[in-house]
Structure prediction request, 577 residues.
Amino acid sequence: MSANLINLLIEATGQTLYMVAISAILGTVLGLPLGLFLATSQRGELLSAPWVNKILGLVVNATRSVPFIILVVAIIPFTRMVAGTSIGTTAAIVPLTIATVPFIARLVENAIREVDSGLIEAARAMGATPVQIIRKVLLPEALPGITLGLTLAIVSLIGYSAMVGAVGGEGLGDLGIRYGYQRFMPDVMAIVVIILIVLVQLVQSIGERVATAVDKRATKSGGQ
Amino acid sequence: MTDNMIQGASIAFDKVGKAYTKAGGATVNALEGISLDVAPGSITGIIGRSGAGKSTLLRMVNGLERPTSGKVLVGGEDVGTAKGGKLRAIRRDVGMIFQHFNLLSSRTVAGNIALPLEVAGVPSAQIKPRVADLIERVGLSAQAGRYPAELSGGQKQRIGIARALATGPKVLLSDEATSALDPETTQTVLSLLKDINRDLGLTVLLITHEMAVVRDIASHVAVIEAGRIVEHGATYDIFTAPQHETTRSFLSGVTGVTLPAFVRDRLTQTAPASGGEEVIRVTFAGAHATDPMLARLTKEMGIPVNILAGAVEEIGTRPFGNLLVSMPMPQAAQARAFLEQHGLLTEVLGYVG
Ligand SMILES: Nc1ncnc2c1ncn2[C@@H]1O[C@H](COP(=O)(O)OP(=O)(O)OP(=O)(O)O)[C@@H](O)[C@H]1O
Ligand SMILES: [Mg+2]
Prediction:
């Protein structure tokens, strides 16, 4: 394989990591509070705002039901507005983030809802404010679940990032299509797939390690 | 521990009612017309069957539930209408422990106990020594850095107790705090609660469905049935002279004094035309609890007594006994009069032919 191709592969890996990292960070920054709010704003809950909860829930569901490739195309005007252009790797971060926010929000919501309601009750009985309950009880207790959720979100971002070639986003997926498929270079395709597998494995095992490290619910020797 | 004596707060329920509206729009009266005064520094047990309304009643004391009628006063403050900062201030004066401990799995023993102090905005320099004191009081110094998952149920409840005491409350609420523990651990937790009540003087209100817990720790007891208090008073009085059917059935469990099956199956409520025996419950209380009265009955009056079941127990430091006996019909009335005359309580349970 030529040095040129190897450079292309290295470059594409960097681009994929760049897109995934930035959209994961933005997705978390926006999705985490959204998930927290969804988990605590139904009627009678800490931040009770049933109508806002319902509307946000609908928006989240709607966004999640649009296939990613259609989302990418459908929001091109919005992407242009935000990124200044609708084409290229940086522009691709916009649809990636928009697809990830509702996904992360739902994962965070689930993790928060798994926290034993007895803990919320104990905190209320101590005289904790809703904000204190969220910061000192819900978030730390849900941390293992949130970590696994974010891991899942990053893994699916790696998958999505392979589709952004459609709007000129580069990266591993784009390289695989252009060289491996269009120029009949099966070895490039194989390497692209292997790098993607390694990336996913890496993210998954780091995520699981972190989740186990922050999870104090069971003793480390296994079993309850 | 460096606590000064905390003066316990009184708790007063004044015609308290609580109605829940169910999904279909129907209302359930979880509590109705509850009036109860709990004296500062006392340990009061609330006993009742599942669904009787015990938790609902207890949770009104720290405003986790609000009454739909009547008033709940803690140390003179109306909890039922308190909101925001005022309610949170009251809650700092009322500690609570739970059946399933409700400890944060993400925090160590010390971290769990520190939580209410952090919530109350205590500076961290003051939190450390305070937490160390509390850990020592509940005997967990060796476990301070461990996580709840690594501890036994009894140890977890000790953390719960230390946490509940952290802000120096005037009232301690316990919702079936020993129901998930084995009998031996239950005893150690109860005696810890007793020590705390004695040393700190705080008022303890505890829910249980076991009369044994009431006997071991409570100075007063309220029996609750279907949302109403059916009987309340000093524990000794309730144990020695229960008035209500529910109380009696709870007591029969704890005193171990139930009729043997072969008698119970033959028991009738109407006296047989001739012959037969009367089945009587004899309660020995106060000064007479340890007198050999049945022996005297036989010796002085010549009445044979057949003992069916019995036990002598202690409430606080006062002994009381419970005996189920049968006596021949013709002489039974005379025997009861003799026992009553000597300060014992008798109750006719029925007859066997
Ligand atoms: N949030 C609620 N909504 C509707 N009904 C409720 C609610 N909470 C309690 N109840 C009802 O109120 C009644 C009393 O409940 P409570 O939990 O106080 O009983 P309890 O005596 O503590 O029972 P247990 O021994 O099982 O804990 C029950 O009939 C229960 O179904
Ligand atoms: Mg209950």
